[in-house]
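So, can you check this one?
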Amino acid sequence: MKTRDQEYRELFMAEALEYYDSMSRHLSELERNPNAGPALNELFRLMHNLKANARAMGFTDLGEVAHHLETLFGLIRDQERTFSGPLIRVVFAGVDALGNMIRAVGANQPLPDASALLDNLDRLVRGEAPVLDEVDEGDTEEESNRKMELSDLVYIQVKKLDNLLNLVGELVIDRDRIMTLAQEIGNPALLATAQHLFRISDDLQYSVMDARLVGVGVLLNKFPRVVRDVATAENKEVELTLSGQDVQIDRNILQIITDALLHLVRNAVSHGLETTEQRQAAGKSAIGHLTLSALTERDDVLIQVQDDGRGINTEAVRRKAVERGLITAAAAGSLNEQDVWALLFEPGFSMADKVTDISGRGVGLDVVKLALDSLGGQLRVESELGIGTTFTLVLPTSIAVKGALLIEVDERPYALPLMHTDTVLSLEPSQISVVGGVLVTHVQGLAVPLVPLRLLLHDEGDDVLPLASKSELDGPQQVLVVNYNNRRLGLVVDRFIRQQNIVIKPLSKPLDTIDLFGGVTLLGSGQVCLVLDVPALTRLFLAKRP
């Protein structure tokens, strides 16, 4: 297993070799035509990128040579130096030195001494003549004898990886069916072949998934400018801290949550952080602090947006929800703090009193919830008035394969993603009570409503669910407790089948319009199994509860 440092070194090497090849090509073009602006601009860009990458990896001397060449190309671009005479010889020697240094990094060897070259580059930057005796005359004999080298890095379109992953998903489904058949037939040779197929398809599946992983930093590193622009528009001082950029996640997941994360960050600066005057009056530092971080938790990736601002004013949210007609005053008064915060993510809800470029445009935090729902993710909210707020996005590492719990209702199997499952229970009727026409039990000291899953699946179009009665309970009740948006719901099922990884395929039209189902998968027996959408089930129960 490669270490993270080895992976970074390989990525650096692959990119650096490509940079070196491009530098040599553009230098030759510039020598033929000293006024070739595009070649000059590209050389400046390549030197800048190589400098930054080398310094980030700790290759100081390599970074210094690239930095001096970057400065020199900047002067040539600004017409303060001309690409002619001795300068050409030193620049070519400098690029050759970069190539030698890159190869030394790849061979894990000490970098060659570049002090004489750096001295000459310094002279050229100052407008002085270089010492040509210090230019390595062996380099020319080496632009003729050097072996051609190709980068180990292959760039590939994401849609090609998507297609490959879909094909692997099909293979996994057939693999499970073959394994089931082999176990039923009982032939030792067939079973051994099926087991081998299982192992190699498993390795193939995770290899393809691994190829789709990217560092969260490719998204997080775009936010300093966003924060700066919003803070300027809001006349606030904000310091942004980033951490966990190397945490790996599926590239498609990162794409899906981009708008959600952007909205949370803008919301934190606009609504969460106070103005300089307000912070000073509250005894805080004049500069607001915002932290964007990524970390792993078991099989999930957590992305957090944390500010040290005013916190969520629970009572103000409660009042605004009643004003906007989202909830009645009586119902709002009975909500706990977490339930009130959940109202922030209802469509169109906003605490803004006026419309600006940042807020009050009717596009609320519901975009965050919708993005998470599409991924089977979760949102956690922590806040303390006057101290600050933390939003945590709980995301799967990959959306290709999901852990799921298989259940049975009316002799039909269904799958529920493990992301939304809390626990499974076998409850005696004595552990269940009826409150307001709804079955209720207590889990870890909290009241959890129960509903037979068949009532939600076999929707008769009634506005409300029938009133529950304990007289209908016959023996132990098998309950799966799910959690969505900090709301727990106990689904009463006929039996639990097993837990397994599934490949979810989208439903075709017109079934894709049914909210309760998030897709379909095939079991090892070849049986079609619908994947239940926990957010949709929870919303349906809340809409139809007596």
Remarks:
- Residues 215-396 form a domain with the Heat Shock Protein 90 fold (CATH 3.30.565.10).
- The chain is about 45% helix and 20% strand.
